[in-house]
Amino acid sequence: MKTFAQFVTEAYDKDVMGSSQIRKTGQRGEIGRDRRKSEPEKRRMKAAGGGKMVPAKSYKDRKDIGTQRQASTREQQPTQARGSAADAQKAAAKAERKKAALARIAARKGGKPAPEKKATPTASQLLTKKKKTAVSPNYKPQKASGYTRDERRKLKRAGDRLVRDIRKGTDKPASHYQP
Predict the structure, then answer these.
(1) Which has the closest alpha carbon to 49: 147, 144, 143, 145?
(2) CA–CA separation, 38 vs 58, rounded Å?
(3) Exposed site from 8, 14, 87, 159, fewest CB < 10 Å?
């Protein structure tokens, strides 16, 4: 009788297992795992109307699903010969250092104080954190009404009409104010 470990070593070649590029495809043909959130996991909600709330975002499938993209379309390709930009940068830095050294030597010979270096932040300055503004403990975020934009506007206008009619002193049936 074989153990599970023996069965696995016979079934799979170690070379293939270590460097395999084969990935499982999903139902829709995508490569790699499905990272989409399920309906209860979705945090953002939008008003569906009538006081109901539904998840704000539904997923759409990409047009290029299941096809490999070329590296040239995904990442910036070099525009110059290899190393040319780096060499030019090194040369510029070296020239700047040489110029600063010559300025220091000239100042020393002239009896003047050496020119000041550019101020660079210290490690402690770089590591200091910005202070966050404290949120009031009494703050409560506004609850979502569940009404759509149109429904909210309709309700607001009905209220405005009611207030205007009360000011005028006219009596109209209650159905006039229903949204």
Answers:
(1) 147
(2) 10
(3) 14
Query: Using CA atoms, how far apart are residues 123 and 31, in angstroms rounded to an integer?
Result: 44
Q: How far is CA 16 from CA 3, 11, 12, 21, in A?
A: 21, 11, 7, 9
Nearest to 106 by CA among 97, 115, 116: 115
Q: Are 46 and 53 in contact (CB under 8 A)?
A: yes
**Closest to 39 measured CA to CA, from 55, 25, 18, 23:** 55
Higher pLDDT, 115 or 160: 160
Write down the pLDDT at residue 160.
94
144: phi then psi, degrees, rounded to nearest 5:
-75, 135
Which residue bears the tokens 């210290």? 122
Q: What is the pLDDT of residues 108-147, one digit of tens each?
A: 888 877 667 667 777 777 777 777 788 888 988 888 888 9
